[in-house]
Design a protein that fits this description.
single chain; about 300 residues; alpha/beta; seven-stranded parallel sheet; 9 strands; globular; disordered N terminus
Length: about 300
Amino acid sequence: MTGRAGASPDHAGPQLFWSRESLSPPDARLTLPADVVCYWRDRHVVITGGTSGIGLAVAELALSAGATVSVLALEDTGLERLSAFAESEPRLTVFAADVTNRAQVDAAVAKARAHHGDIGAVIACAGIARPDYFDRLTDADFVRHMAVNYFGALHVIQPALPDLRSGYRSSITVISSLAAVLPCFGYGAYSPSKSAVRTLCEVLRQELKPKGVTVTVVMPPDVDTPQLAAEAATKPAELRALSSSAPITANAVAEALLIGAARGRAAVVPTRSGRLMHWLSAVAPRLLAWIMDRTISRVQRRNPY
């Protein structure tokens, strides 16, 4: 079930400077708590960006928990591979849809509903990140980040909302980034788009909670995905220094995401150091700014831009 598409698997954001942790190695066998498995079992879940990175890890883990999964993603080799797998997995369907194109997303969501029934959860993982110095970013870069990261999430939530509002314990989960609360040098287009996602989730949480729909925003640090690898081509040295820690795995993010959404958490930050930085950004923003400025200055003394 494919057609024209265009939405990329997501990168998540800066690890910054003091964490060396990884929640689980790539080959770890993930297990979900019984209450979480019970939540996802037989639930129809629509996932964007589900053919690579975090989205693919979420799709795989949701299937293992007994969910029925509809993936919306780019029409590329990743979609072809997942479509081939779906031929032998009746609980999985794959649809090509450009998340920046509302009409394509509407059509894909309607096909998913017709195939698997009412939607019980939406998980928006599609996203892009192109870091660079601000004066090297173009208007097209800023527009594209908002189109994919912000409107891409909005476009899949809107057509699914009637099902979610009439369902039982329905949920919306969106990948934002730790860079949404800790804007970083070099993320002039990325951080604002992820901040918009975070704000949207809080507004939706307030509006939809009385309707029985929970909304969760996920804010990971750097995640080991193809998108993160692609950033190397344009990543400034200052950003490399701020995000020098080892990235966590997509599986670790998927596990934290599915647990947090099932338990109705408003926000999920998948690492201890990330939670500390999230907390410090609220209670000690000047301290964080001083640390980041010091790191940037040290890099610029060695490599003046």
